[in-house]
Amino acid sequence: QVYLAESGGGLVQAGGSLRLSCAASGNIDSINALAWYRDPPGKMREQVANILTDGATTNYLESVKGRFTISADNAKTSVSLQMNSLRPEDTGVYYCAAGSVVAGLYKDYWGQGTQVTVSS
Questions:
Q1: In what order do the strands lie in the sheet with 2-7?
Q2: Residue 1 and residue 19: Cα distance in Å, rounded?
Q3: Based on C-alpha coordinates, what's the Rg of the chain?
């Protein structure tokens, strides 16, 4: 079992910045990837960014490239999302997610979500 807890959401004006953080606990050694997702109002869930914990490879949603940066510590106990130049369309509930492999079986774990609202 992996437990995730997000923090750092809030209300900002367009052009502002926020930093989201996620603390991971439980079976940390099983985690092979960490990611941030968001649920925009009235839209399908989308992956914002991910990072592979072993190789530190990162991937980003095209619309956030150059504005958002995902990072994780070496112990895989935290993952952050630095969000700059925020736009109203970045508004949504943001979720931290972890991919875990135990005995060859893959599971996804999710945090409770944190609201990000960008005003115009």
A1: 2-7, 18-26, 78-83, 68-72
A2: 26
A3: 14
